């Protein structure tokens, strides 16, 4: 058996918008026809995926009648039950329609803000009807090119109003649903509000029910501007806020490329997988990526298979890292040196006694921490592991 063949237990998921991406970009028309959601569900299930996600409009085209909506939902539910696929997450398209040209929740126009909240309540109903327990908020059009009119602080206030209102709605309906905010620095806006994991974490703490709201960090979004996604992920995990994750790949300083997972920077992807697997994160391993524009439908499925295989290969590499005697020996030596100090520290928590003891402690600054950090050795071992010679 192929040991890198994905299984349902691996919890891999894709968005309808990812495999269904038609290759349209700012300079060119679609290169592939749209995929029928029912077809995508079946193909993903055959490839070993576990879940499928959607924006309201990916499943039920904007402006559909109630009758149309009901037919689409019925057929989609049938496809889910026939294929054994689940819908762990859903979201709202608040960026495609021209009404959102200058924002949705943060639009300066009160009618647009209200419409965005209404659209989201309906989309939440749809997501919950299909089984979603996580709801993603990516503020696609929440941003600006010009700061002459809207006060950026007021935009945050408006964003908070909308999220608080929607938290109230979810509680009122008795839905089992948590929110996950997805930061992004720019694109399609010149600059987006809530641009990074750190900004979003600070925002969450100001909400009415912060315990219901976490993060959906995306590899490409932190990487675009040169931030370290592994560090962003680590901070989200440490804060207990990793509610969902968008995996893909990306080169720094480019537009949001959304490449196949691990295709550009397998080393950083390795650390992402290693961290996720060690963290106890039990949510979807979601690929928010798309096939290259030059591909046809066969290329789309090759892309989807590639995302999942690379994840599993890197998971195997993470296991090797944990089992490698030389690597673990080196780590143990470093740890032994790092934990040898037994004097007063901040780790005990503050007390006036602890403060007095630490103030009085004598340190030989020339001697402590003076060993080489052996990161050259360690990094080379990781590289050799990844290159397959260990
Ligand atoms: C869009 C965006 C993604 C978001 C999706 C959810 S839509 O493709 O680029 O990062 O996760 O709204
Ligand atoms: Mn992206
Ligand atoms: Mn994303």
TrEMBL record:
It is found in: Cytoplasm. The active site is at 55, 58. The keyword Nucleotide-binding does not apply. One of its GO terms (biological process) is D-xylose metabolic process. The lineage of its organism: Bacteria, Pseudomonadati, Thermomicrobiota, Thermomicrobia, Thermomicrobiales. GO terms for cellular component: cytoplasm. Keywords: Carbohydrate metabolism, Cytoplasm, Isomerase, Magnesium, Metal-binding, Xylose metabolism. This is Xylose isomerase. Mg(2+) 1 binds at residues 182, 218, 246, 288. Homotetramer. It catalyses: alpha-D-xylose = alpha-D-xylulofuranose. It holds the Pfam family AP_endonuc_2.
